[in-house]
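Subject: for your reference before the review

Hello V.,

The reviewers asked for a structural picture of the protein, and I figured it would be easier to keep everything in one thread rather than splitting it across files. Below is the amino acid sequence we used in the manuscript, unchanged from the supplementary table.
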Amino acid sequence: MTPNLLLQGFAIILLLQWLATTIISQLGLAFPAPLLGMLMLFLALHFNLFPVSIVEGFCDLLITKMGLLFMPAAVGIILYLDVLKAELLPFLGTVVLGSLVILLSTAKFTELLIKLQGGKH
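And here is what came back from the structure prediction:
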């Protein structure tokens, strides 16, 4: 992976994120700008606005450094540990219930897709 290609990938992802943030703030939507940025990246790749190889290297780099991106969340958990201890039961209930809802909805959606494809793998 060349430095030039890494910089191009970084520039494209940064541009899409900036566009998403600008769109969200201008329209006053209650929608996460990072999610809109990812959707814009997906659409750009889907419609071949640029080749995957341009952002692939930078995305691989981000994935290898993903642990560092969770560091602020871990610090936040440590800072609010007393609040989490006080609300442990509702917190665990939310996590378990949310996980079950996601698991079941993913399973049903996958089942629907398999039926729509005629049972093919």
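For the response letter, the relevant points are probably these. The radius of gyration is 20 Å. DSSP finds seven helices and no strands in the chain.

Happy to draft the paragraph if you're swamped.

O.
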